[in-house]
Amino acid sequence: QTPNPKPLFTPPSSLRSKLINFLVEMKRDVLVFGGSGALGSAVCRALGRSHRVISIDSSPSPFADSNLDFQSLSSDSTHLIPGLKAILGSSGVEAIVSAGGAAEACRLGEPEAVASLRRMNAANLSPALAAAHAAAKLLSPGGKIFFTGSLEAFEGPCPLWVTHALAKNSVHSLALQLAKDADFQSKDLRSICLLPALLDTPENRALLEIIGKKELLPPELVAEMLSNWLGGAACPVNGALVKLGFANGFLQVSSPE
Questions:
Q1: DSSP conformational letter for 217
Q2: Residue 22: predicted pLDDT
Q3: Dihedral (Cα; 102, 149, 188, 231), 10-degree rounding
Q4: What pTM was estimated for this model as a whole?
Q5: Of 34, 41, 60, 29, residue with least CA distance to 128
Q6: Are 204 and 216 in contact (CB under 8 A)?
């Protein structure tokens, strides 16, 4: 048996370490707002194969390269951009994913309706607004931001969980407003709003009986789609609303009529 040939050159450990650091540094940054949730975790895991992922959330994501506490950064908007710049690499921010969100059942006639709307805005709209602000300030030319809306809220009405629908429709509006911003457009940036069917999360599983849904969309399918878009596959245009349905185990991507 012929022995395996020895490598012509084996770099010393110090050189290997520098080479690894160089390759890591060359990876472009992706910011994931809500990186510890079901969708955010899937996005961090998928995009981490090709990008340096920074999660911004109230809890750390085990799949991110770095984690920042959302509460400390968002308590004052003046802290957000400096806090992010302190951890960003030199290769620029290629994409931002606003993956945070929450849902709860609430009818307008319930005593908790106003408090429920506050909770839904804090969970859905606030991180999306922070992500939009970061996109306007930090995205490299040609960069993209992906918002997470709701197909049910978009197609509506949703009287059984109206406060969630109100918050998510605000996210849809935010994505469209950012797409029309003149400074945003001047850098050839894209604001894209995903409209997924009900995602497979612990919260949404608890709502299945209330809203009558039988199939939930696996977050991993959405994450792989984003990975493909950032990897060179045809990506929607600025201002696009993208419906993400799920049936018979397959992701169904379309545009609203």
A1: B
A2: 46
A3: 80
A4: 0.88
A5: 34
A6: yes
